[in-house]
Amino acid sequence: MFKAEELFQNITDRNHPDETVLTIIQGKGTLPREQAGRNIHYDDASLSNYKKVEQGDFIIHLRSFEGGLEMANEAGIVSPAYTILRCKRPHSSLFYDAYFHTDEFINHNLSKSVEGIRDGRQISYEAFKWLGIPYCEPTEQEKISTLFSAFNERIAKQRDLVESLKKYKRGVVKAIMTKQIRFVDKNGKPYPEWSACTLQDAVDFLDGQRKPLESADRAKRQGKYPYYGASGIIDSIDDYIFDEPLILLGEDGANIINRSSPLCFIATGKYWVNNHAHVMRPHKGQNIRFLRELLESLDYTRYNTGTAQPKLNQEKCRTIPLSLPIYEEQCHIADFLAALEHKCAQENEELEGILQTKNALMQQLFI
């Protein structure tokens, strides 16, 4: 173990306005500012005050207290608000890149040099330079770096696979619901054409049975039953209203516009629903899983009402036009999409397992 100032020197090399301006991407190091996908405004006249970094340097940035130090992926200049650290000894930058993102470093070591509270928090270099930092022979650092590079490559590939499967499913759902893809029965014959109707022809609305509870009431009534709102389960309480599989469709107009979370989900078992989600029971001859996929795929922006706090009210909901296949094809479609969803879940579980293994090794290695 060495004091940080024995391993790293604080670099304040300025007056390089023609160098590439770099932006910090938390957890990913640096990117040229024009590639960062952010609309960041800065005055060219101030660039001479920016600090020069070399590839492999480490940067204490404004959110380091929660995400660790970032490594410079290339040479360039960064904000003068950042602290630039350059290792004095033979080392592997990837070794320290791994260490500076561990929970052990962020929450048990770096936290000692954090000043301020909430958004005013920052890392004091005067405190940081006294922190104990591990060091081992460069040959061992290289082996450790190779291990974690392999992990990172595997994680990147698995993450790409998960995102590709999600994108593929969205495309398949769109193609099915617009009838670009059609299914055939067990004899290879096409199913009948889909029939036009409105949402109220396919479901019964049970909104009258919903009961909102204030946060204080929920806090007093903690229990085992899920409490649903517009975006899914938001709490658990000691009682339930419904005890059957039903479709819930959130009323939140902002989520309808931004699609920050799913709009439609199936609630099962015993549960409570507040007045921010429509509750629907499919009619006989309607497959609940197919209807959920169909309703999730729709564009509700035209049915939003209100401006300050837009919402999807029941009156508008009832009139939403649908095109529905017969029950047998609904089941066929639902089973097919469930298989895709299962595949997505399997690959995501694999990704989580790899991440957990990597994190567990990192924590054990540096303790």
Largest sheet: 4 strands, antiparallel
- End-to-end separation: 11 Å
How many domains?
Answer: 3
Gyration radius, rounded: 27 Å
Order of strands across the widest beta sheet?
2-9-6-7
Count the DSSP helices. Answer: 12
Q: From the 3D coordinates, which CATH architecture of the largest domain would you assign?
A: Alpha-Beta Complex
Proportion in β-strands = 15-25%
The coarse overall form would be: elongated
Secondary-structure-derived class: alpha+beta
What's the CATH C level of the largest domain? Alpha Beta
DSSP strand tally: 21
Coiled coil: 337-364
Protein name: Restriction endonuclease subunit S
InterPro entries: Restrct_endonuc_typeI_TRD, Restrct_endonuc_typeI_TRD_sf, Type-I_RS_S_subunit
Organism: Faecousia intestinalis
Describe, in plain words, how this protein is organized in 3D:
This protein is an alpha+beta fold. It contains twelve helices and 21 strands. It has helices spanning 4-7, 64-67, 93-99, 103-108, 125-128, 138-177, 199-202, 215-220, 253-258, 288-297, 314-318, 327-366; strands at 2-3, 8-11, 22-25, 29-32, 51-53, 58-60, 70-71, 76-78, 83-87, 114-115, 122-123, 132-133, 195-198, 203-205, 222-229, 232-237, 246-250, 264-267, 272-273, 277-282, 321-324. The protein folds into three domains: 2-135, Alpha-Beta Complex (Adenine-n6-DNA-methyltransferase TaqI, Chain A, domain 2); 138-168 and 326-367; 195-324, Alpha-Beta Complex (Adenine-n6-DNA-methyltransferase TaqI, Chain A, domain 2). Strand 10 (114-115) and strand 11 (122-123) form a beta hairpin. Helix 3 crosses helix 6 (138-177) and helix 10 crosses helix 12. Helices cover 37% and strands 21% of the residues. It holds the Pfam family Methylase_S.
